[in-house]
Structures are given as structure tokens and as C-alpha cells.
Amino acid sequence: MQYRQHGKQKKPNPIGTAQGRSTLIALLGCAILGMVLSRILPFLIGKLQPKMPPAEAEEIGVLVALGISGIVLVISLLRSKKGVSPLRKQLLKEQEKSDGS
Predict the structure, then answer these.
(1) Most CB atoms closer than 10 Å: which of 1, 18, 46, 89?
(2) What span, in angstroms and rounded, lies between the C-alpha atoms of 3 and 5?
(3) pTM of the shown model
(4) Could you tell me the maximum CA-CA distance found in the chain, to the nearest angstrom?
């Protein structure tokens, strides 16, 4: 691939790749999950522990929401992809052919 244009080196857009898109989707999904949980968990903690001060319930709820969304993000980024793209299969076949010769 050539990324040169008018003498300047042009770098590929990382969001344009499949890995970049899946990373962005995972990041946005976990951000939304964290925002929703940070609204719901303090309310639930306040209902379950009525004697707890609201500020403390909010602090605990936000920290738990942050932890849950962080763990989900790490797991979603580290899990192996089940499907292999046709382009990747072709590349692997070509590599096997070149290694075999």
C-alpha cells in the first residue's frame, strides 16, 4: 500500500480498520453502560440501605459503575474474535504458501 501524496506521508486512519471500529464500538458501549449504571446504582443503594447518607450512596454507586464498566471494557477488548474475515483467511493462505516454498 502506498500512503504518499504530494511528497507528504499520509498515515492510514485507525478508525477505518475493522479493529479500530470494534474498539470504538466497545469503548462507546462501555461508556454508555457506565453512565446508565452511575445513575441507577446510587438510587438502588439508597433504597437497599436507607440509613446510608445519600452522598455516600452516590459515591459507592459511581465507583461500582466505574468498576463494572471498566471490567466489561477490558474483557470485550481482550476476548478473541470468533469470525475471521475472508481477507484475513486469504492472507494466511498466502503466508502458508510462501513459508512452504
Answers:
(1) 46
(2) 7
(3) 0.64
(4) 74
Q: How far is 91 from 28, CA to CA, in rounded Å?
A: 30
Q: What is the mean pLDDT of each run of 10 residues along the chain (101 residues)?
A: 59 76 89 94 93 94 95 86 70 80 59
Whether 34 and 65 have beta carbons less than 8 Å apart is answered as: yes
Residues 6+ apart with CB under 8 A from 12: 1, 3
β-sheet bridge partners, residue 77: none
Cα–Cα distance for residue pair 21/12, rounded to 1 Å: 13
Which residue's entry shows cell 504518499?
4
